[in-house]
Amino acid sequence: MKNFSTVSTRLLIAALFSGLTAASAAPVCRFRADAPDQHLVVKGDTLWDIAGTFLDKPWCWPTVWGMNRDEIANPHWIYPGQIIWFDRAAGRLRLGNPVVADGAAALGAERLQPRVRTEGLGRDAVPSIPPGVIEPFLTQPLIIEDDELKGAPRIVATQEGRVFLGKGDKAYVRGDLQGNTTFQVFRPGAALKDPVTQQIVGYEAFYLGTLKLQADGGDVHTFSVATASQEMGKGDQLRAVPPTPMQNYVPHPPQQAVDARVVAIYGGVTHAGQNQIVSINRGKLDGLDIGAVLQLYHAGRTVSDATAPKGWFGREQQVKLPDEEVGSLFIFRVFKHISYGLIMQVTAPVEVGDVAKSPE
User: Fold this and answer.
1) Which of the four pLDDT bands, split at 50, 70 and 90, describes residue 259?
2) Is the pTM of this model over 0.85?
3) Domain ranges of the chain
4) For domain 259-357, which architecture applies?
5) 3-state helix, strand, coil in the chain (%, to 5)
6) Which UniProt keywords apply (predicted)?
């Protein structure tokens, strides 16, 4: 392996991939001092893990790969058996040909980049992050924004006056179905407040199961319970939401500067660690999309400076300590004003009110 000292350990990427706004300054992407010359892609790898093999900051992946915005949102697939090469002279990562029977591999003469297979597209492709961790969060209405509660269809009566419904039971629903026949059932939970403004930005939603339309009765519709993960009954609300597919966006900085706060930690706990889910008070209207990566910080405390001259009435000066970086957050589901993120790396527990902002 070549010694990494043959190239600068502080490679400054002069221009970000196309499509970033001027508000987002080009980040400094540094290769790891122990970066290998190559990496053989194996089953179980993720883009985040592979990037971390070469880079101090895995979210620098698109920059050193030379991706544009279309390639980030719709990445070509990388498969087990291919080789990621570190082109030290160019300061780029490149994709080699698949490994042949004797284990050798060769770089093609053309500009190499992740390629699309024509057979079994996506079946064995390397995902951005471990999909099993977030799959339940892609199909269930875990956050309901305020305007979605207004006018949502609701269960008004149950079969034979039962208190709770199970699979196969009938439910009677009022509300505008808007032509939909299959609904997810949820129960609004605790209000999610912006830690800064204290305004309600959404509600936690407890997913209860699914209903399927049996008869459209005009004012009152007859449904049957298709699935039931929890007991449902009168007052529970309906939402027609098609499952969100797993989108294999490449990890990347957001298109514009984002300064968010952690609103809630999934599961009602007070602290979160690696591979746990948090929600933040910024969404698609704030420039976030799937795959955006934010840095997590503990907000600096405000303390008294006993060493400084005292002010009026002997009061000590108040100073705010710097925010302390504690980890990184991968955004995987985006609503209008709020988003879900997976904590990828963390050096200290994440708390409600912590800062999540664009990488520096």
Assistant:
1) very high
2) no
3) 1-139, 142-239, 259-357
4) Beta Barrel (2.40)
5) 15, 35, 55
6) Signal
